[in-house]
C-alpha cells in the first residue's frame, strides 16, 4: 500500500507543481516531485547531484506496476 503523507503545492509558473512524501510499506520516500511535462503531469523520483555534476535518482522502483501505482497515488493526491 502506498500512502501520501505530505503534499506541498508550488505556486508559480514553472513546470514543478508540487513535492510529495510517500510511505511504501515500511519505507518513507521524501521529495517526489509532481512535474508538468509535454504529455501532462507525472511523478519524478528524488534526485541528488553527484561529484561529476550529473543528477541521479536516489530511489529507483524496479517493479513497473508499483511505479505506476506510486504515480497514480501521488497524482490523485495532487488533484484532490
Describe the structure.
The chain is of the alpha+beta class and about 80 residues long. It contains 1 helix and 6 strands; from the N terminus they run ββββββα. The strands form 2 sheets. The protein has a 4-stranded antiparallel beta sheet, covered by helices on one side. The protein has a two-stranded antiparallel sheet with strand order 5-6. A hairpin with a 2-residue loop joins strand 2 (about 15-25) and strand 3 (about 25-35). The model has no long low-confidence stretch (mean pLDDT about 95).
At a glance:
By secondary structure, this protein is an alpha+beta fold. It has one helix at residues 64-79; strands spanning 2-9, 16-24, 27-37, 40-44, 47-49, 55-57. It has 1 helix and 6 strands, in the order ββββββα.
Strand content: over 45%
- What is the number of beta strands? 6
Helix content: 10-25%
Estimated structural class: alpha+beta
Number of helices: 1
List segments where confidence is low: pLDDT < 50 over at least 5 consecutive residues. Answer: none
Order of the strands making up the biggest sheet: 1-2-3-4
Termini separation comes to 19 Å
Q: What do the pLDDT scores average to?
A: 94
- Rg over CA atoms: 13 Å
Biggest β-sheet description? 4 strands, antiparallel
Taken in chain order, the helices and strands follow as EEEEEEH
User: Shape, please?
Assistant: globular
How is this fold's topology laid out?
Layout: E1 2-9, E2 16-24, E3 27-37, E4 40-44, E5 47-49, E6 55-57, H1 64-79
Antiparallel strand pairs: 1-2, 2-3, 3-4, 5-6
